[in-house]
Amino acid sequence: MTKERAKLLHAGVLSVAAVGLIAGCATDDETDTELDPETAEEEIEEVEEDVEEELDLDEDTEETEDNIEETEEDIVAIAQGDPEFSILVSALQEAELVETLQGEGPFTVFAPTDEAFEALLSELDITAEELLGQPDLGSILTYHVIPSEVMAGDLEDGQTAETVHGEELTFDLSGDPMVNDAAITTTDIEASNGVIHAIDTVLIPSDFELQE
């Protein structure tokens, strides 16, 4: 029920209640019973309290539905809907990690933007196709994933966290927030199965070797 409809119901119920109670005060030909005006007023107040409680319940329900709608997309769906993550999405598809990150989770993904991937391609002097064709592509991607939900407010300076890859990430909050050597540019992009933080550098695990 919408707030507008609930308000109309509120007014309508009170009007009907008032009419009914006033009518009850009238003397009937068959009975001489009269309803005390004070009692009538108390009963109207009770009806009003019941309707107000219903209005409160409707508002709570609407807020809950809004929250569900805001976070109904999973991590992969959110990344697919953001053009800044197009290379990341292609990499997830190539490494067959889409289904994993569509799972229940929760996961925390430090998501490199397209600019971050382009900087890596320039540094390695390879094309996007060559990067996506790397046999260890999955190890790079899982190095960006923590198998729990970590919001920005949960992070502490010097904190470490083990990734799905197995190697740890280190956080530096002494200045602008950093994870390893990457700046965290956008935080707390909430998903139904975790959270995404955008970063400006692709994180490379120590065991990665570029294959020709």
Give a quick precis of the structure.
By secondary structure, the chain is an alpha+beta fold.
Overall mean pLDDT stands at 81
Strand order of the main beta sheet, please? 2-1-7-6-5-4-3
How many whole angstroms does the radius of gyration measure?
A: 30 Å
Give the class-level CATH name of the largest domain.
Answer: Mainly Beta
Number of strands: 7
CATH architecture type of the largest domain: Roll
* Sheet having the most strands: 7 strands, mixed
| Global outline | elongated
Number of domains: 2
Helix content: 40-55%
Remind me, CATH topology of the largest domain? FAS1 domain
Low-confidence region ranges: 5-10, 13-19, 25-33
Task: State the separation between the terminal residues, measured CA to CA.
Answer: 62 Å
Element order: H for helix, E for strand: HHHHHEHHHEEEEEE
CATH superfamily of the largest domain: FAS1 domain
Strand portion: 15-25%
Look at the helices and sheets and give the structural class: alpha+beta
Region (Disordered): 26-68
Pfam family, one: Fasciclin
Domain FAS1: 72-203
Organism: Alkalibacterium subtropicum
Task: Explain what you see.
The chain has 212 residues and is of the alpha+beta class. It folds into 2 domains: 3-70; 75-199, FAS1 domain (Roll), CATH 2.30.180. The protein is built from 8 helices and 7 strands, in the order αααααβαααββββββ. It has a 7-stranded mixed β-sheet. Strand 3 and strand 4 (168-172) form a beta hairpin. Helix 1 (3-25) packs antiparallel against helix 2. The longest helix is centred in the first third of the chain and has 34 residues, at 37-70. The protein is elongated, with a radius of gyration of 30 Å. The termini are far apart. Residues 72-203 form the FAS1 domain. It comes from Alkalibacterium subtropicum. It holds the Pfam family Fasciclin.
